[in-house]
Amino acid sequence: MGNPKKKSKKVFIPLAAVVALAIGGAYYYYAEYSRYIKTDDAHVDSDNVAVSAKALGRIAKLYVDEQDSVKQGQLVAELDSTDLMAQKGQAEAMISQAQANQVQAEAKLAYDQENIKVLEVNLARAREDYDRAKQQIAGDVITKEQFGHIKKSYEAATAQLAAAKTQLSVSRSQIASANAAIGSANAQVGVIVSQLRNAKLYAPMDGVIAKRWLLAGDVAQPSQSIYTITNTSKLWVVLFIEESKLSGVHIGQAADFTLDTYPGVTFTGKVYAIGSNTAGQFSLIPANNASGNFTKVTQRVSVKVSIDGTRGEEPVSKYRILSGMSAVVKIIKD
């Protein structure tokens, strides 16, 4: 017969192991879930801004490339402006021609105004002669032939003044046309100057060229990205937690996180922003339950955590943290 004591020892060892595992599991659950809100649906994020052209144009020059640091206002690219410069030259020539026409029309207007003054004097004299002649012909002082000459002179003076006034109106119209042409050409030059200004592309903020999308010689479409600039001076961790856990999160709450790039290093931060919508609200095809086909899916809400320091002695500045790095975040429950 076997020894009963040995059999009891064989049974006790596995049972003790099971109890130890259960206790360890319970402690892990307590440590991980009762004290923290944990998620691995998280990554480092940053502000990313696109540099794009406002109008269609061929890229003439690229002054920076990927991983180059840039300052706000720095010239980073330039579109071909050959056609625009030619158009600007044509518009400026139109301005010069219109200005010359304006000067000529104003000189003609001044002449017409002086000429009208002379013709008005002539007409007044001719009218006096004509009125006197009508009295003289009635008294047989002058002959019909003489009266006819005086009448024709009066009619000619009247016609000359009328023609001069018509010419005055023409001169004024020519001045107005010249002014309109100058205004139109100036506006055209203004548009071209604006387009020339837009042909030079500047960095909208300090940062690093994270991506160059086009090459010199490529045709950039309006609003098409040529560069993407990342602001590396301000990084944060964005995480997405289940809506059922949101009630346990508030602004200012402490958080720890790790990065796959630096195993064993725990970084610290604080919750500083909580999304006002669930992530599903911004999906390309939002859920539509009007048809009656409904499948409940737990929604997630974005939370932003600052990057403040580490749990070790090394400062966070020692570590090269990049936008897009994967993270595991624990928000410490109050």
If you had to describe this structure to a student in words, what would you say it looks like?
The protein is of the alpha+beta class and 334 residues long. The chain has two domains: 37-79 and 209-332, Efflux pump adaptor protein, beta barrel domain (Elongation Factor Tu (Ef-tu), domain 3), CATH 2.40.30; 82-198. It has three helices and 13 strands. Strands 1-8-11-10-9-13 form a six-stranded antiparallel beta barrel. α2 (82-138) runs antiparallel to α3. It is rod-shaped and about 175 Å long.
From the 3D coordinates, which CATH architecture of the largest domain would you assign? Beta Barrel
Assign a percent range to the helix content. 40-55%
Cα radius of gyration in angstroms: 45 Å
CATH class of the largest domain: Mainly Beta
CATH topology of the largest domain: Elongation Factor Tu (Ef-tu), domain 3
CATH superfamily of the largest domain: Efflux pump adaptor protein, beta barrel domain
Quaternary state of the chains: single chain
Q: Mind summarizing the main beta sheet?
A: 6 strands, antiparallel, barrel
- Encode the helix/strand succession as letters: HEEEEHHEEEEEEEEE
Low-confidence stretches: none
Strand order of the largest sheet: 1-8-11-10-9-13
Overall mean pLDDT stands at 89
> How many domains in all?
2
- Number-wise, the strands total 13
Name the overall outline. Answer: rod-shaped
Transmembrane segments: 12-30
Pfam family, one: BSH_RND
Subcellular location: Membrane
Protein name: Membrane fusion protein (Multidrug efflux system)
